[in-house]
Design brief:
This protein is an alpha/beta fold. It has twelve helices and 14 strands. The chain has a six-stranded mixed beta sheet with strand order 6-7-8-3-9-10, sandwiched between helices. Strands 2-1-4-5 form a four-stranded antiparallel beta sheet, covered by helices on one side. The structure holds adenosine-5'-triphosphate (ATP) and magnesium ion.
Length: 346
């Protein structure tokens, strides 16, 4: 069955890094993963994007042989996760699971210990530990107990531990959730460095921006199913070029402003909780001048209607927006109108 044999830690050839078909995991009544088909090419970063409870971690655990699938198939570099679990385990690493660090040990003690467990000699283990601590900006904290690390440092040492032996496939399950922008950037650099060494990365995230920065392809999952798949560009253009956020001076003008924006942008306009705020998605194929030009035209039209705008921005679609748009496509409004004016009328 296995057509591509790993060369013991090296990069296996031909087979996809991950290939699943109809993968299912059921917890009681809950189909946490409900028939997922994925193909991940070797040497790439593949993003799995989805909200809380979408089934990301469950899918990753099945691929990493930590959970038994209830249906479908999954292969890692051609090896079946059930029938060839040992081989799969030798090829993958999962941050925070296989490489769990000991809170009471220092950074360097943890890495040396894990390196020894992986069969490195004492000198080689220390050398690899130091290398990684340097690379991850943890040299100064090397002799501090991990329980005294900040969240960002903790995340970095977890990743360092998971790549002591360069894995063929690395699962990073929400590696930057809760990190500040600086720590997030450091983790992104680490991921890029890992991929440059030939490792394939499956990255789960709730942030479109993160997937955009790192991933060559993305699957958006919701309720255990893939609802969209493609390159970041394809995904974004399927949703719209960006979002216009407008804050008005006078909340009494919001309904009229909504109508003007909807007409000018040909887009859905949503009311935010703030009574003077509106958001509209700008459709189009990219972020270029097209979207900006149309947004500024719409602004001009607001002014022409005597509507005072205090604040305005044009930004990339957020995951929420991508996600809402994708689910909207699947469930169009029954009466064909846009949601905002149903909201406005209510
Ligand atoms: N061991 C378990 N037993 C029962 N239900 C589970 C178990 N693990 C996960 N679930 C359920 O399966 C669904 C998917 O959970 P999962 O952890 O895969 O989501 P996720 O996409 O990783 O979410 P998050 O972004 O919050 O990490 C959820 O409804 C969750 O409650
Ligand atoms: Mg999860």
């Amino acid at each position: 069955m296995s057509k591509s044999k790993s060369k013991g830690g090296g990069t296996p050839s031909d087979a996809p890094a991950i290939e699943t078909s109809g993968l299912v995991k059921v917890f009681g009544e809950n189909r946490a993963v409900d028939g997922i088909d994925l193909t991940v090419s070797p040497g790439t970063v593949y993003g799995v994007l989805g909200p809380n409870g979408a089934g990301k971690t469950t899918a990753v655990k099945m691929l990493a042989t930590l959970l038994r699938p209830d249906g479908g198939e999954a292969r890692v570099f051609g090896h079946d996760v059930l029938r060839e679990a040992d081989t799969v385990r030798s090829l993958v690493s999962l941050t925070g699971q296989y490489a769990s660090v000991d809170e009471d040990l220092t950074g360097v003690e943890n890495l040396v210990l894990l390196a020894r467990l992986l069969g490195h000699g004492k000198a080689r283990g220390r050398e690899r530990a130091r290398q990684l601590l340097d690379a991850f900006g943890l040299a100064e904290a090397a002799d501090r107990q991990v329980k005294n690390y900040s969240g960002g440092m903790r995340r970095r040492i977890d990743i360092a531990a998971s790549i002591l032996n360069t894995p063929d496939l690395l699962f990073l399950d929400e590696p930057t959730t809760g990190l500040d922008p600086r720590s997030r950037n450091q983790v992104w650099d680490i991921v890029r460095a890992v991929v440059a060494q030939g490792t394939t990365v499956l990255l789960t995230t709730q942030y479109l921006e993160e997937a955009d920065q790192l991933a060559g392809r993305i699957a958006v999952i919701d309720h255990g199913r893939v609802i969209a798949e493609g390159t970041p560009g394809e995904l974004k253009s399927s949703v719209g070029a960006g979002s216009v956020h407008v804050r008005l001076r006078d909340p009494g003008q919001r309904a009229e402003a909504g109508e003007v924006l909807a007409r000018e942008l040909g887009a859905r306009v949503q009311w935010e909780a703030d009574p003077v705020a509106l958001t509209a998605r700008v459709t189009g194929d990219d972020e270029g001048p097209g979207a900006a030009t149309r947004a500024s035209r719409a602004l001009g039209e607001l002014a022409a209607h005597g509507i005072t705008v205090d604040d305005f921005s044009l930004g990339q679609p957020s995951l929420d927006e991508v996600f809402l748009a994708l689910t909207d496509t699947r469930r169009p409004h029954r009466d064909g109108t846009s949601a905002e004016f149903k909201g406005a009328a209510a």
